[in-house]
Design a protein that fits this description.
Elements (H helix, E strand, L loop, with lengths): L2 E3 L2 H9 L5 E10 L9 E3 L3 E6 L8 E6 L5 E12 L2 E4 L7 E8 L6 E8 L5 E4 L4 E4 L10 E6 L5 E6 L2 H4 L6 E4 L7 E8 L8 E9 L8 E16 H5 L2 E10 L2 E10 L8 E6 L2
Parallel strand pairs: 1-18
Antiparallel strand pairs: 2-17, 2-20, 3-4, 4-5, 5-11, 6-7, 6-10, 6-16, 8-9, 12-13, 14-15, 15-17, 16-17, 18-19
């Protein structure tokens, strides 16, 4: 069997992914003139933007590609992230950086890699013709928690804080969805869909760019998203089928080998993310 080299932190992600009992899958739709496809792609004649939100609680990571034959300039002071109508700036005097681990690839070829997430410190970014620029950001898409208080017959009061659909929408019944591990079979899950005007999370990415360094003429791209569906399922169904692979681990001078489960991750999508649910 193929041997897989992997860092200790990546191994931790693989192991922990199977420890949580339930996972909530969060799916989005995109609206407006500059709508984004389910694959996380938005483009016009000048620019291509690729989104990858797939992470715990969602991170709106995106990259930009200059499709033209001319240099492009992005003005971060006039580009913002907007969450539920609140504006958050990309350009600040001081930059902050953090790292996180995300899956890469699909199916049997899935691996895990470390990415850096940084609030952009430069006012302008120069993008040569036919060139990608990576634009990490630290803004996460806040999970929707609720607080429920109940009192029993003896007067004992219990307060539950959770993002589970079971508590967000009392009385909700499970429905059947296709099984990801047994083709042709179904499993039960909580499912909630949202129209745009009732969505618990709406967010926009507004970018200002120009082919003129002095920005005498400007162009704009505005990508609008809203949470359109939540599906709460078992971790087993979320992970999908798996293969066991040999892993070599090196921590300092210590080397060891072990076997881990590498999951297909069938729900992975550039415009979706997930939350671990503790019940």
């Amino acid at each position: 069997m193929k041997s897989l080299k992997i860092s200790l932190i990546a191994l931790t992600v693989i192991i922990l992914s199977s420890c949580n009992q339930f996972i909530q899958l969060i799916e989005t739709d995109s609206v407006g003139k500059d709508a984004v496809t389910k694959e996380g792609l938005c483009e016009n004649s000048d620019i291509r933007i690729n989104y990858d939100m797939w992470s715990e609680d969602g991170i709106t990571y995106f990259s930009i590609y200059n499709k033209s034959d001319k240099p492009m300039y992005i003005d971060w002071k006039r580009s913002v992230f907007i969450y539920n109508d609140w504006k958050y700036d990309y350009w600040v005097e001081k930059s902050t950086t953090e790292s996180y681990v995300v899956p890469s690839g699909i199916g049997k070829n899935i691996t895990y890699e470390r990415k850096m997430s940084t609030v952009v410190a430069e006012r302008y970014t120069f993008v040569p013709p036919h060139t990608y620029v990576s634009v990490p950001m630290t803004y996460t898409i806040t999970p929707n928690f609720t607080q429920t208080t109940t009192t029993d017959a003896k007067g004992k009061t219990t307060t539950t804080v959770s993002q589970s659909l079971k508590y967000l929408y009392p009385g909700m019944k499970k429905v059947e969805i296709p099984s990801s591990t047994k083709p042709g079979k179904n499993v039960k899950a909580y499912v909630k869909t949202y129209a745009q005007n009732e969505s618990p999370a709406r967010f926009r990415n507004f970018l200002t760019y120009s082919f003129d360094e002095k920005f005498n003429t400007e162009n704009f791209v505005e990508n609008d998203f809203f949470v359109s569906k939540k599906t709460e399922m078992t971790t087993k169904n979320f992970n999908g089928q798996f293969q066991k692979q040999n892993v070599k681990i090196k921590v300092g001078s210590i080397k060891t080998k072990t076997k881990v489960k590498v999951f297909d991750s069938p729900y992975r999508n550039g415009t979706s993310w997930y939350n671990s649910i503790v019940k």
